[in-house]
Each structure stands twice: as structure tokens, then as C-alpha cells.
From TrEMBL:
The chain crosses the membrane at residues 65-84. It comes from the Eukaryota. The lineage of its organism: Eukaryota, Fungi, Dikarya, Basidiomycota, Agaricomycotina. It comes from Suillus fuscotomentosus. Coiled coil: none annotated. This is Mitochondrial F1-F0 ATP synthase subunit F of fungi-domain-containing protein.
Amino acid sequence: MHASLIRRQLGGIVPPKIATPSLLTSGSGSSLTPLVNFYSKLPKGPASAVSGGGIKARYFNGKNASAAPLVWTILGLFTFGYTIDYQSE
């Protein structure tokens, strides 16, 4: 892969470069205001719970988790296959 392609893909992940070495070594606290402003806008506390959809989130995750849908699906497929096989003789 080319370096420019990797740099473009990681552009959204890597935060902007606001703490330059010249800014940090100058010794004045007022020059760090862009850095302080950047970090003060970030969310604080634990991350919120992800509410995903789909079959796995509905039946296998959470406090009401159960493998019953999987068992019923397997039994249904077995019954369907057995019925087709039995009718063909």
C-alpha cells in the first residue's frame, strides 16, 4: 500500500496535530489553549452502551439471552428435511 493511501485512511482516526514541539517547549501556558480546548470538547465518563440490532443482539446478548431460537431453527430444519425425504419414497 502507498503511504498516501494509509495516511488518507487514518485521517479520521488520528487527532489533529495541535500540540507541536515548539508549542510545548515555549513554557507559556497560554499557548496551550488550543490543546486544552480540544480535550475539553471530548466526552467524559464511560462510553454509552451500544444498542445494536439484529438476531444476535436480540436473542443471545443481554439479560434475556436464550438459545431457544437456535434450537427451534435446527429442529424445524430437521423436521422439514425429514418430511421431504419421507414424502419422496
